[in-house]
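User: For my dataset I need records formatted as: sequence, then structure tokens, nothing else. Please produce one.
Assistant:
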Amino acid sequence: MPVTRRHILALAGVTTAAAALPGALTAEGITDNMAAQANLPFALTTPIHCGEVALRVRDLDNMVAYYRAVLGLAELSRTKEGATLGAGKTPLLHLITTPDAKIEPVTSAGLYHVAYLMPNRAELARWLVHIAMTKVPVSGFADHNVSEAIYLMDPEGNGIEVYCDRPRENWQWNDGVVTMGTEQLDVDGILALADTTKDTFERAPDLMRIGHMHLKVGDLTKGDAFYVAAAGLVHTRKGREDAAFLSSGGYHHHVAMNMWHSKGVGARESGQTGLAWFSLEVTDNETLEAQRSRFETAGFAPKSLTDGRGFEVIDPWGTGLRLVLA
């Protein structure tokens, strides 16, 4: 039986696209290209952009199975410390095995979601058919003007967004501020790009990447001191007291911060499940050294990585940020 709009809506436990909006609004804190492209998505071509992410997990086998089955990630390596998964041969996700760890509470700072960027709308469509046919529950989906997104949660409570960007020439900017809303997703328009009679999504496309990271923080001013003043990202939206959106090179956002569940919290309890670290890649050594200098001046004590590619610094809530050469 072909996948229809009704099947997609059922994944979120609703019968209309309007009813699915609350889940997407919650995910964003508010209570095209059919052919595969030869080049990386724009998000990955900016001077600073997202690289990899590491999560501490209790049940390694179960989590590996989930990310392989749902996102189509390939298991690239496994050691006694954990497993590395990726798209094609590109590592994206490190799962660190911590079987005795406590589950991190939702009110803690840390990860809100990891956003996996599909290279085009057609790949998002194939994936949407896949999760419909395999009956993967979702928590919401929405059109954000600059992108189209589906939200879900992994078995240990880590948020996931799977999205594709609209052509950037269609993004609306005004004085450095990009228009990003949360509206009903055009499910029918996406499904029109895929064969809805069968599941053709066997693995993640080679050009799928982490497009942005969305974090929970306790204080936006402290977040600015770390991710803007020291890391070198810039604001792309203004006027919100509960969230901030930051980017490099004219992307809509590479890092988001919110206080929707975590306002006023301090450093996370070490060793709990959830986000261990994520990386931002920079395109030149001059930028990397400038970042290191700013972090040192601000008292954040950068520590060089053993592979020589860059350094790691810990944000005010205990999350590791790795700055590395692309």
